Predict the 3D structure of the following.
Amino acid sequence: MTVSWSPRPLPPPLAMSPAVESTTTNPATSTATTRTDEPTPSPLPVHYSSKSTSAIPRPHPKPGYPTCKLRFECRDLSHDGADIFFSNNEIARDLLAAVTIVLSTLYKPSQSNSHIPPTRSVTLILRAMGGVAYTTGRELDDDHKEIHFSLDYITKIPSEPRSRQRHEIQGVLVHEMVHCWQWNGHGTAPGGLIEGMADFVRLRAGLSPPHWKQEKKEHWDGGYQHTGYFLDWIENIYGEGSVRRINEALMNKRYDEEVFWTGLFGKQVKQLWDEYCKTLPENNAQQPTKDGEGHDGGVLVEKDGQKTKDRLEKVLE
């Protein structure tokens, strides 16, 4: 018997099906032969168009306020004022609450926040000194602010009612924190406007002290609560965000009283002041009706500290 032999076929090429071998035998000659079929090409892969699937939209992140480092320094832990401060305040939370109150009152956040001063750090310093408090920038870098708070003043805050000390300390912190974040017309804005804006923010935060009152005076820029109540009236008459506009108008321009107020409200500031004074009582003073109630959004003395604590907790939510 004769058997024919052929060499083993090479491996099939890529994307080709392997060759199929078949063996047949001729009965007349009893000879077996092997036949190799041609390989069959595999079908080309199917490509689906990307147009058939829609892209999933990704929302832009919500703008937020800038952050800065918050530092604390007490230069005399044995001072009675230090004991009062520590027993009434949670330093980290209260400083953060003050920053949040100031930024949310004077600004609306944006993606760049280029309209907000680039304050990089705020250091609260407790020390024995005269007065109440003041804010300054470091000599080498004004973007680093320091709030100096008098321990001597803290000892003079009445301890009754129970919330009085915490209420006053937080009010001073908010006032001074405004100076860390407000614009001043490149140093040309009146000091009364600068201080009045700080007390406006304190007033809106519900942290006004019991001795504050609205008075009829000759000049609008007497500063502090005197101007703060005037700005509060403007906010109520011309709409929410009016004081924010005043602050932001001092960002890039020097203060010029002749055009500043007219450009914002269509009237000279003296005319606005006269209109405000007409709303005040004839006795030139606005007295609280009872503890815990003030006027024009001002909250005076609270009978307990829970309202102040709840308010600060809400700010930090």
